[in-house]
Design brief:
The chain is of the alpha+beta class and about 575 residues long. It is about 55% helix and about 10% strand. The chain is built from 27 helices and 14 strands. A six-stranded antiparallel β-sheet has the order 3-8-4-5-6-7, with helices on both faces. This is Ankyrin repeats (3 copies). It comes from Legionella massiliensis.
C-alpha cells in the first residue's frame, strides 16, 4: 500500500515542518486544496510530477527520496502557503488567480480559459469533450468548498485530488470523470453540478489554441440562468461564480437573461477583486443601503482596484462622500467608520486614500467655488484647514480606542504592519502618540493572532516598549504553544521572561523535541493553563495583561528616571548604571 498523501495528513505534517523551520505561517483545510492543486499544475507543466509526488511522500511520512532536498521542501511549503491564501501576499490576487504566483522557466502561469457553470452531468460530459484538454495543459477545477487539478495523459484523465489517499485516480472517458466529480470529489446532491474551470497552458507553448466560446456553452448547456447546484448547505450559481474571474462581456450576457443572484455576484466581484465584472454589475444596484454595503465590503477586504471602480459610479461615489461628513455626536469627533473598515482590510494604500480623501473632500466643501482665485492663493488658504482636519482625524482615531470599530485594533487584527503604520504615522503628524497602555493592549492582540511583523513594529516604534513594560504581558503555556516560534524568539530577544515550563516549549520549538521528564512537566503546566483559559471570559487566550504589574513597572521606571535626574544634577563625576 502506498503512502497516504491526503491533504489532512499533508497539512498536519507540513505545519509541523513549518514550525520546525521557523516559517511564520500555518495552514488549515480552508484553501489548502487550492494551493496543492495549483502546485500540481505547475509541476505537471514542468514535467516534474514524479518530484511532486516524492515531495508529498516526504511530507506525509518522512520517507527520504533521492533528489529531494530540504530546499525543495522549503520552496514547496512557501508556495503552497502563497497560493492557498494569496491575498496575504498580494491584495490584487484571489484563490482563483493565485496560479499567477507560480511560474515555469521564469514565465508566470495564467489561465487561458475560464468557465463557471451549473449543469447536469450529461451537459458536463459535453463541455469536457468540447474543451478537449491537451497534453501540455492542466485544468484546475473548483467549486464552493474544494479544488482539484486534472491532466490528460495518453487520452486518460489523471485527477489529482488533495483528498485522495493515493493522490490520483484515472478515468478513460468523460462520463466516468463527471460521475466522480459529482458524487465523490465535490459531493453535489441533486442532478446539477456547479464548477469553475480554468485551463492553464504551458507558458512557452505559443501555438494557437481555440477554445469554445463561453456564451455558446451557456446557450447550449445553461437553459436556466438561475439553476442552482447544492453541496451540503452551500450553493453554486452561474452568475455569482462567473463574477470571480470572467470579464464584463460574459457578465453582460448573463444579465440579459435576468438572473436573480445579482447581489451575490456583486459580492463575489468585490471579494475576489474583479473590477471587470464589478463594472458590469454596478448599474443593477438601485438601493442606497446596498451602495453603502458595497463600500463597506470593499474596504473591509482591502480591494483597492474594486474600490476605484465603485468611485467611478456617480451614485456610489456620492454615498461615500456622505460618509466623509458624518459626525459622531456621542464621542464629539468625526465618524471615521470608513477608516475603520479600511484598517480591517489590511491594505495600507487604500487606508491612506481614505484618510486623504476625507481631508480633500472637506477642504473642497469649505473653499469658495470661485474660479478667479489663483491656485497659489487657494493652496495657501487650504493649508490651515488641512492641518485642522488632520488633527481631528487623529483625535477620532484616539477616541475610538477600545470601542467597537477601533481602527487601530482592526489594523492590528488584519496582520498588516503597513496598515498599523499608516495610523500611527497619522497620529505622529499631529504630535500624538500611543500611550504605553495602548501599545501593550495592541501588542497583546498581535501576539494572540500570531502577527509577527505587527508585534515587531509595535515593540520597536518610538517610543519603544521597554522590557519592563513587555513583562506586563503574561503568556500561559498554551499561549506559548500556539504562538509562532519566530514571534516567541522576538519577544524573548526584546526582554520578555517566560516560566520554566513555557521556556521548555520554546526550546523544543527551536530544537525539535522534549525529553520525557520535560514533556511531563510541560503537560502538567498545560493542563492547569487549559482550565484557567477555558474558565475565563477573556478573549486573549492565554496572553494576559496584568494592570497591577504594568503600574508597578511604570512606577519603578519613573523612580529610576528620577534617580538618574538626581544623579545628573549632583556633582558626582559619573552616573552609576542602575539595574533591576
Amino acid at each position: 500500500m502506498g503512502t497516504d498523501v491526503n491533504q489532512g495528513r499533508i497539512i498536519r505534517h507540513l505545519n509541523a515542518y513549518l514550525e520546525k523551520q521557523n516559517l511564520p505561517f500555518r495552514m488549515n483545510k480552508t484553501g489548502v486544496c487550492n494551493g496543492l492543486a495549483a502546485l500540481h499544475a505547475e509541476y505537471a507543466l514542468k514535467g516534474e510530477l514524479g518530484k511532486f509526488q516524492n515531495i508529498l511522500k516526504f511530507i506525509a511520512d518522512g520517507t527520504k527520496v533521492e533528489g529531494i532536498s530540504e530546499e525543495d521542501i522549503d520552496r514547496f511549503a512557501v508556495r503552497v502557503a502563497a497560493t492557498f491564501d494569496p491575498k496575504k501576499y498580494n491584495l490584487k490576487l484571489r484563490q482563483t488567480n493565485a496560479i499567477e504566483m507560480l511560474s515555469v522557466n521564469g514565465h508566470a502561469l495564467k489561465s487561458s480559459f475560464d468557465l463557471a457553470l451549473v449543469a447536469n452531468d450529461k451537459n458536463w460530459e459535453s463541455v469536457f469533450q468540447e474543451l478537449a484538454l491537451k497534453n501540455n495543459e492542466v485544468m484546475q477545477v473548483s467549486s464552493v468548498n474544494h479544488a482539484i487539478s486534472i491532466q490528460k495523459i495518453n487520452n486518460v484523465y489523471a485527477v489529482y485530488d488533495p483528498n485522495y489517499s493515493e493522490g490520483y485516480k484515472y478515468f478513460s472517458n468523460e462520463k466516468d470523470l463527471v460521475k466522480e466529480l459529482h458524487s465523490n470529489v465535490f459531493t453535489f446532491s441533486g442532478k446539477n453540478m456547479g464548477l469553475q474551470l480554468q485551463v492553464i497552458r504551458h507558458p512557452e507553448d505559443l501555438k494557437d489554441r481555440p477554445f469554445p466560446e463561453v456564451t455558446s456553452i451557456y446557450d447550449r448547456f445553461l437553459p436556466d440562468v438561475n439553476a442552482v447546484a447544492f453541496t451540503g448547505d452551500q450553493k453554486f450559481t452561474t452568475l455569482s461564480f462567473a463574477a470571480w474571474d470572467n470579464d464584463g462581456s460574459i457578465i453582460d450576457y448573463l444579465l440579459k437573461r435576468k438572473p436573480t443572484d445579482i447581489w451575490d455576484a456583486i459580492g463575489s466581484a468585490i471579494v475576489n477583486n474583479n473590477p471587470r465584472a464589478l463594472r458590469a454589475l454596478l448599474p443593477e444596484i438601485n438601493d442606497k443601503d446596498k451602495r453603502y454595503s458595497c463600500i463597506k465590503q470593499t474596504l473591509e477586504h482591502g480591494r483597492k482596484e474594486a474600490f476605484e471602480v465603485l468611485m467611478q459610479d456617480q451614485e456610489i461615489s456620492a454615498s461615500y462622500n456622505k460618509m466623509l461628513v458624518r459626525y459622531d455626536d456621542e464621542n464629539n469627533v468625526f465618524n471615521i467608520s470608513d477608516i475603520a473598515y479600511a484598517a480591517k482590510g489590511g491594505n495600507p494604500e487604500l487606508l491612506q486614500y481614505c484618510i486623504e480623501q476625507r481631508i480633500n473632500h472637506l477642504i473642497a466643501r469649505a473653499m469658495p467655488d470661485d474660479k478667479t482665485i489663483s491656485e497659489e492663493v487657494r493652496e495657501a488658504a487650504a493649508a490651515p484647514i488641512k492641518k485642522n482636519l488632520s488633527e481631528r482625524i487623529s483625535e477620532a482615531i484616539l477616541a475610538y480606542r477600545g470601542k467597537p470599530n477601533d481602527p487601530l485594533l482592526n489594523a492590528v487584527k488584519s496582520g498588516s504592519k503597513g496598515t498599523v503604520q499608516v495610523l500611527v504615522e497619522q497620529l505622529h503628524k499631529t504630535n500624538h502618540q500611543l500611550s504605553d497602555t495602548d501599545k501593550i493592549k495592541y501588542l497583546r492582540e498581535a501576539i494572540s493572532n500570531n502577527h509577527f511583523h505587527v508585534a515587531s513594529y509595535l515593540i520597536s516604534e518610538k517610543p519603544a516598549i521597554s522590557p519592563e513594560m513587555l513583562n506586563s504581558i503574561q503568556m500561559s503555556t498554551l499561549a506559548v504553544e500556539r504562538t509562532n516560534i519566530a514571534l516567541l524568539n522576538l519577544l524573548k530577544t526584546e526582554g520578555m521572561t517566560f516560566s520554566s515550563a513555557a521556556q521548555k516549549i520554546i526550546d523544543s520549538k527551536n530544537k525539535g523535541s522534549l525529553t520525557f521528564i520535560e514533556s511531563l512537566s510541560v503537560a502538567v503546566a498545560k493542563f492547569t493553563d487549559f482550565f484557567k483559559d477555558n474558565l475565563s471570559n477573556r478573549e486573549e487566550r492565554g496572553v494576559k495583561y496584568d494592570p497591577k504589574l504594568f503600574k508597578q513597572m511604570k512606577e519603578r521606571m519613573q523612580e529610576v528616571k528620577s534617580n538618574i535626574v538626581d544623579l545628573k544634577d549632583s556633582s558626582l563625576p559619573e552616573i552609576i548604571p542602575l539595574t533591576f
